[in-house]
Design a protein that fits this description.
alpha/beta, Maf protein, seven-stranded mixed beta sheet, globular
């Protein structure tokens, strides 16, 4: 495929994740393109150890690792590679869980927690705290070719409430409250979330670039 013509016909975007929820969100955001995960093209067990100290470092490292992994494929030129690193930062917890959002509490419990468990652990750590300010961060990295690399980082402000509300979304969405909408992110319709969220804002800017 001629990459210069991608913008005309839509492209195959290989996303460096195995998270089904992320794939759905990204398919809605990049709705003119085909979103695929490594498993969709026969790459089983892709995993990237996030050792960097920033969202940007982890996002770019993950994208580069997947890009290099597919270069020996005969159809490598058919794909762009997209990776994101995102997380929740809570002001009263000095920015935690931050880049460790997906692994939050695993050092205490000795295993990866499910989303409701992480939310409960976060709420327990915030008991008695009056400063409930928080924000999500998403850094996306897109690789179109070896020297055509784009990164963008966005922020999504809100507050942490004291209990889960809503059944939509995933992760910390049920405890992330938006005063202007009087709802948690888990109560928002998907199309609205995809316009205003950290991942939505970053993704829409990249989609516009494409």
């Amino acid at each position: 495929m001629n990459k210069e013509n991608w913008y005309c016909i839509g492209m195959k975007i290989l996303v460096a994740t195995g998270n089904a929820h992320k794939k759905i969100e990204l398919s809605q955001i990049f709705n003119s393109h085909e979103i695929l995960t490594p498993e969709d093209i026969g790459i089983v067990g892709f995993d990237f150890e996030e050792t960097e100290s920033t969202f940007l470092g982890n996002s770019l490292g993950k994208a580069q690792a997947l890009w290099e992994l597919i270069q020996d494929r005969t159809d490598a030129s058919d794909y762009a590679v997209l990776a994101d690193d995102s997380g929740l930062a809570v002001a009263a917890l000095d920015g935690a869980p931050g880049i460790y959002s997906a692994r939050y509490g695993s050092d205490v419990f000795g295993r990866m927690l499910e989303s409701p468990e992480r939310n409960s652990y976060l709420l327990k750590n915030m008991e008695g705290l009056t400063d409930r300010r928080a924000f999500f961060v998403c850094c996306m990295s897109l690789i179109l070719d070896e020297y055509r690399v784009y990164t963008i980082q966005e922020q999504f402000d809100g507050q942490i409430i004291e209990e889960e509300i809503g059944t939509g979304g995933f992760g910390y969405d049920p405890i992330f409250y938006l005063p202007e909408y009087r709802k948690t992110v888990a109560q928002l319709p998907a199309d609205l979330k995809n316009r205003i969220s950290h991942r939505g804002k970053a993704g829409l800017k990249l989609a516009t670039l494409l």
